[in-house]
Specification:
single chain; alpha/beta; Nucleotidyltransferase, domain 5; five-stranded mixed beta sheet; 21 strands
Length: about 600
């Protein structure tokens, strides 16, 4: 039987957020980050798991794939894999994967159907190629991209740098499938310890990671930094980013920054006497970042006259800055890639292959990110009927799961909500979510104490019926991917206090029936009961773990936290009286529990 479809596979490889995206005839059919499979946050290393996930979900083999496009921001993939042959780099190829990688047909591949591209180019394709715009401009800002010597696209000769300079910012314009680079901002290498090289470079995203490492002991806690910023006092810290006539200057840090958080220093972060200093520094870094991004966006608008802006790169996850760009930069429309970080590189690689290598037309718009595989009712039954699950829970099928769940939410219950395919990207957008009632301020503390165990300053986000969003939140822009912060209107702040941040804003997700009919109907049912078309939506996981992917992941999280009820499609799972006895034993003997709960099945 002749093959009916053309398949392109995009891969982000080796460093953090390894991922894959499979296109069928130019449309995304499946995409996944490795962390969702291995349960290791920001998983790096080899890419077999993510490839197998996409191919198995589509029911094809690697031989059916017409083109594979890859990226690794550290080095071009062929160079990276040559290094891995003779150099032990467990951060990029863990010990347990090293014997398996050479067995894979893509490792050290010289096939004509395997292509490698540079980093910001992949980000750019992830932004414009799946946007709803025929023409416009692209803004890419992240921590660090490819070496200048490895960049593939043509860029202005005036944007000079040494061969070992790294991408920091890239700006493009596009029309149809044509992409043209307008500006590159490079970071030159900086002296320092090898492990902190990139975030000591003089770049916008690198500075944000530097501050994250200083305050939280982790360069990748930029979301926490954004949440902490409103607590800081204005202008207590000098500028850390300075933009003059289009040139960005990042001053070196000096000994005035002498209060870093030391993870194993014996002092708890929450009670540190350095907190006021950290808050002030977070405010400064956030404010500087917003102002530079807004200036860059205005330059793009004035230079090109474009009406449409698309954004990707890790800094595009800064929803506060995005809100200012959307409202103040002068564009009619702004679209942000939901997987704006390096997991989204897989999307960009795939579309570079489809558009540039295969010379196909654009025909797909990414109006939602639910591109994980859909688990069957049999998968759900298997997860809920394991012996140690069955004796602790009661599972019932509902003839109207949205009605029944809305009643529980109105009774202040915390719900684990599992529907359809998982979201691609770092945000839970209503298919792998924890949901709760926003009408009482204490619900934020309940979620934190029972499930999330996050720092108390971090806000929880709202989901809202799209047609009601302008009534409750300021601003006209749509926000389907929870990537734009909006001010909560004063008359609503006391009605939904659990989602209002200290500065009066919320990271909004607008919900439409066309893209998530089940979540939309749940909001309608909750509105009918309470008069409030808003719910708290946070990711279905505990601190330090990836968002759940499978029914099994969801059941484990449900049983080991204070989630009140679990919804798996139309099955409602509740804890019974025996859970209070068995639950602590299971958590206390987790290895045995896993063996008993998941390794055997009782009829």
């Amino acid at each position: 039987m002749p093959k009916q479809s053309t398949y392109v596979l995009g891969l982000n490889t080796y460093d953090h957020d390894v991922s894959a995206c499979l296109l069928r005839d130019g449309a995304i059919v499946f995409a996944i980050a490795k962390e969702r499979i291995t349960r290791e946050k920001h998983a790096s290393g080899f890419y077999k798991e993510v490839i197998d996930y996409c191919l198995d979900a589509e029911g094809i083999t690697l031989d059916d794939v017409d083109l594979i496009v890859r990226n690794c921001y550290i080095l071009p993939v062929p160079d990276m894999e040559e290094r891995l042959v003779y150099q032990d780099m467990p951060g990029f190829l863990p010990e347990h994967e090293r014997p398996e990688a050479p067995k894979h047909p893509l490792y050290l591949s010289h096939s004509d159907k395997v292509v490698s591209i540079s980093h910001h180019l992949a980000h750019a394709y992830s932004a414009f190629a799946v946007s709803p715009f025929e023409e416009g401009v692209v803004m890419i800002v992240d921590g660090v991209g490819s070496y200048r010597s490895d960049v593939m696209e043509t860029y202005p000769a005036s944007d000079t740098g040494t061969p070992l300079a790294r991408e920091s910012e890239s700006y493009y314009k596009f029309s149809g499938t044509k992409l043209e680079c307008l500006k590159k901002v490079w970071m030159e290498p900086d002296r320092g310890f090898l492990s902190d090289e990139f975030y000591n470079m003089p770049g916008l995203g690198a500075l944000y990671s530097r501050a994250s490492s200083y305050i939280f002991g982790d360069w990748n806690k930029c979301g926490e930094l954004m949440g902490l910023a409103p607590y800081g006092r204005k202008e207590k810290v000098r500028h850390l980013l300075e933009l003059t006539d289009g040139t960005l200057h990042v001053p070196h840090w000096t000994v005035e920054f002498n209060q870093p958080y030391i993870i194993d220093g014996g002092e708890k972060w929450e009670t540190s006497p350095s907190m006021p200093h950290w808050e002030d520094l977070a405010w400064r870094v956030q404010d500087d970042t917003e102002n530079v991004l807004l200036a860059r966006a205005r330059w793009l608008r004035e230079t090109t006259g474009a009406s449409n802006l698309t954004i990707a790169g890790g800094v595009a996850l800064n929803c506060v800055a995005n809100g200012r760009v959307a409202r103040e930069a002068g564009f009619e429309n702004v679209w942000i890639q939901p997987a704006a970080g390096d997991d989204g590189i897989a999307i960009g690689c795939a579309y570079y292959g489809w558009l540039e290598v295969l010379k196909q037309r654009r025909s797909f718009v990414m109006d939602h990110s639910y591109v994980g595989k859909v688990y069957s009712d049999q998968d759900i039954e298997t997860a809920t009927q394991r012996f140690l699950v069955r004796i602790q829970t009661r599972a019932t099928r509902s003839d109207d799961i949205c009605r029944d769940t809305a009643k529980l939410l109105a009774e202040q219950k915390v719900i684990g909500w599992f529907q359809g395919g998982s979201e691609f990207g770092p945000r839970a957008l209503g298919n792998r979510s924890l949901l709760a009632d926003p009408r009482k301020a204490e619900m934020k503390d309940i979620l934190n104490s029972r499930v999330k165990h996050r720092q108390p300053f971090r806000p929880f986000a709202p989901i809202v019926l799209a047609e009601r969003a302008r009534e409750i939140f300021e601003g006209e822009e749509d926000s389907p991917f929870m990537l734009i912060a909006k001010r909560v209107r004063p008359e609503w702040r006391d009605r939904i206090p659990a989602i209002v941040h200290v500065d009066g804003t919320a990271r909004v997700q607008t919900v439409r029936a066309e893209t998530n009919p089940v979540l939309y109907r749940l909001l309608k049912e909750f509105e009918a009961l309470t008069g409030v078309p808003v719910l708290i939506n946070t990711s279905f996981n505990v601190k330090g773990e990836p968002i759940v992917e499978t029914p099994r992941d969801a059941v484990i999280c449900f049983l080991t936290t204070g989630i009140d009820h679990l919804v798996l499609h139309d099955t409602l799972v509740s804890k019974n009286a025996l859970h209070r006895i068995v639950g602590p034993l299971v958590e206390g003997y987790s290895d045995v529990a896993n063996m008993v709960a998941w390794g055997t099945r009782s009829g």
